[in-house]
Amino acid sequence: AADPKVIAASLQDMLHLGRISAEQLTEARIWIESVITRVVCDTGTEEDFKRLDANIEKSRRLLELGRDRERVEVNIEFHNVLAEATRNPVLILNMAMLMDIMRYFASRIDPGDGKVIYQSRLRLMKHLRARDADGAVAEMAAMLKRVTNRYQNLKPTIKEPPPARRRKQAIRKTAGAKAASPRRPRSQSRS
Fold this sequence. Notes:
Elements: H1 4-16, H2 22-43, H3 46-65, H4 68-84, H5 89-106, H6 114-129, H7 133-151, H8 163-180
């Protein structure tokens, strides 16, 4: 199975190098999450909705406790739970990859006001349960745009290279060390 973290690391490199903008990432998220939201409106079960409700409730409790970083992680996981409700492995994999990228962004900004996301999620759930795909997609898109506005002014502040580049540097160092080390002579067997 493909590892979404590998793809996400490459996209993070592209973001870091300015080859992908926050607007382009949001546009892709809106397209993918619109499809996911529509599928869940059509085929979501009460069990799927209960899993989403449990995620929202966990986020609310973390908000009350002031455990912001954990809350952000739970909020990111909401999107994976939503994708899982489609039962489509391609959509699930794409969402996992996008959420790995969002973790990268989320770790670099203030967690923000969780009440706004909480209220948005409650509205989204009403639309999902009512099988109102247009309303659900509109709510999701509005929230994604609000989140993107927070990332707009985020400049790369990382003093170390992005993950994929670190891996390449480690491989080069390892290859360089092997080339520089003296070779042992092959042992010859004697009969």
